[in-house]
Automatic annotation (TrEMBL):
PANTHER family in the cross-refs: GRPB DOMAIN PROTEIN (AFU_ORTHOLOGUE AFUA_1G01530) (PTHR34822), GRPB FAMILY PROTEIN (PTHR34822:SF1)
InterPro entries per UniProt: GrpB/CoaE, NT_sf
TM annotation in the entry: none
The protein's name: GrpB family protein
Taxonomic source organism: Alcaligenes nematophilus
One Pfam family hit: GrpB
Length: 205
């Protein structure tokens, strides 16, 4: 096994390469599905990591040791990559089901609980409108969070895949009627890049 996967928790190894789907009958929307919005993809903005640093400090101060990990993920976390102007942040907590441990503190910062997906890694998402932030809550060693980190770091060191993904994003936004549609349109490229990442880590899919 490639030594590179030493950064992947052993308990998560057998789940990293499996893209799980939640229960299709589960309604994830806490306050109803939001209206469709125009998909806007902008050139990379050097202010995104600066903004993340401020946001992460606020989150850390609000949650204290209940925040096991706070990480900048998604396209705004990759130098030079075009992105929707939304900062994606992963926060790991001991148990996402215990919403009282983190939701009130995040509410006080201006975040609102938008998505609750018990069937998909116990995922919660809280949104902030100004600045635009999607804050994703997962539990320890969550495979989805680990994939986020692997993908972010791979694009940061593989310019050919960064360019390929950038092109896929620009093509996907054309005619996309929703964020879900936009994500589906670029999914084939994303999955192919993941296969390269898994191979480099000595993981089989």
């Amino acid at each position: 096994m490639n030594n590179q996967n030493k950064n992947v928790p052993v308990r998560a190894l057998d789940r990293i390469t499996t893209f799980e789907d939640g229960d299709p009958n589960e309604n994830p929307w806490v306050a109803g599905e939001p209206k469709a919005e125009l998909i806007e993809v902008q050139d990379y903005d050097a202010n995104w990591p600066v903004l993340y640093q401020r946001l992460s400090q606020e989150i850390q101060a609000a949650l204290g040791n209940k925040a096991l990990t706070i990480a900048h993920v998604g396209s705004t976390a990759v130098l030079g990559l075009p992105a929707k102007p939304v900062i994606d942040i992963d926060v790991l907590v001991a148990d996402p089901e215990q919403e009282e441990d983190y939701v009130p503190a995040l509410n006080a910062l201006g975040y609102e609980l938008s998505i609750r997906e018990r069937s998909w890694y116990q995922h919660r998402m809280l949104r902030q409108e100004e600045p635009r932030v999607n804050l994703h809550v997962f539990g320890p060693d969550c495979p989805e969070h680990i994939r986020h980190i692997l993908f972010r770091d791979w694009l940061g060191t593989h310019p050919e895949d960064l360019q390929r993904y950038a092109q896929a994003k620009m093509q996907a936004k054309e005619g996309a009627g929703s964020v879900r549609d936009y994500n589906q349109r670029k999914q084939a490229v994303v999955r192919n890049i993941y296969q390269k990442i898994f191979a480099s880590q000595g993981l089989s899919s």
